[in-house]
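Fold this sequence, please.
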Amino acid sequence: MRSKTLVTFAFALCAGTFIGFIELHSDEVSPTLAAVGLFAALLGFAHPRGFWRWALIAGVSVPMCYVIGPAVGIAPRTWPQPPGLLTYIGIGTFTTIWALAAAALGMLLAREDQQRDEPA
């Protein structure tokens, strides 16, 4: 892997951890979706060729926080209702689609920026 990809991957994992922290400590969905969208767009802008990877990491971090959080001693303020595997699959699907849209937007902005920098 190239160093830019490794740095972006490390930032994506840190962003996913932060997104999970936000999800576990809030009662509303808005802060989590804002963080997912912001970080996915930033990652898509920083590394446009792999925008789908960064969206996957950002989107899957939300349901994974309900597995990893309690394992390390961080209980969520509220659990998703109704509890069950289908709920977590639904949450993961929704947040991954949201992250994919945001990362694609970041990728498009990066490509537009690259085209603007090229001489005519």
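The mean pLDDT is 92. DSSP finds four helices and no strands in the chain.
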